[in-house]
Design brief:
Blueprint (H helix, E strand, L loop, with lengths): L7 H11 L11 H4 L17 E2 L2 E2 L15 H10 L5
Length: 86
Amino acid sequence: MFSDALTVDKSIELWRHFAGRVQTGFGIGTHLSNDMGPASPALQIVMKLVSCNGRPVAKLSDSPGKTICVDETFLAYLRSVFDVRT
């Protein structure tokens, strides 16, 4: 799931790059929900998914402090899958 500073054009570029190799998802957010241009700046309101259908989810990030997961058991599982030591 790509989401950092995405535009529609960048999403298409990423989709083409990874097509046929991995499943991709895109969170375009600001650029998709605020198309009014510079006359109406984005509000910088961010919502993060913490569960889906009763199952935990996690936001993984390459920026320290931006990773989000409210389920410690799921977070421990992800650490083991990605071989991350804390």
